[in-house]
Amino acid sequence: MTVNKVFVLLICCLLLALGGSLVFNSLLYSQAKKYYREVNETRLDPIGLKRYPHASTQVTTSNQSVILLLGDSRAEGWTTPDLTAINPNALVINRGISSQTSTQVLQRFDAHVRPLNPSVVVLQVGINDLKTIGLFPGRKEEIIADCKAHIQKLVEQSTDLGATVIITTIFPVGEVPLQRKPFWSDDIEAAITEVNGAIATLASADEAVVLLDSFSLLADEQGKLRSDYSQDELHLTPAAYETLNQALIATLKQL
Length: 255
Description:
A five-stranded parallel sheet has the order 2-1-3-4-5, with helices on both faces. It is 48% helix and 11% strand. Helix 6 packs parallel to helix 7. It is of the alpha/beta class. The protein is built from nine helices and five strands.
């Protein structure tokens, strides 16, 4: 190989390395910007009360049954199930808020749940707690314990209202993209398994609490979010929510 060919090959390799570096840094910047926006939005409205400012004034007729979807973005994205065949007077209300932890959902319970006097609360929350393990590995046990405690408190407050709680296990996570890997940890998936075990225990301890094992419905053989159900590593496609709604409707029929 001539000197010129070696030089050209070297330049090509350097350009490829530079291009790859630029792409990777762009992805990291995009991820950092997303987190920065979330942090500042939380500073403006720490528990998301402004998201549903009219929650306390929503009035339902005496024969309506309120079914409340409560939790984080996975609850917020949950498509409204068709309950006509079960109860034509059922009113499905969504009170999910993207990026919220179980702490935030618990803190807004009195504003967003209590005034609606729901008959059924469908609860999906916890992933935003557990994903922080990648950022704070030394606080892993604390994060898991707090997540369990907050979910238990949400269940207790819901049943105190006279509602039946359909508690869903935390959804599996999908393939983590390159730009998120610096903020991720394998311990997150282990934590999901642990918290889901606690969720199942809550359901077995109280007749007013019913388990909907969404993890099993959505996971593939490796315990990851099925690729056809994955919008990204955390969020679901419409097909996934259709599967969840079939299970939800079947559960409601039994109540």
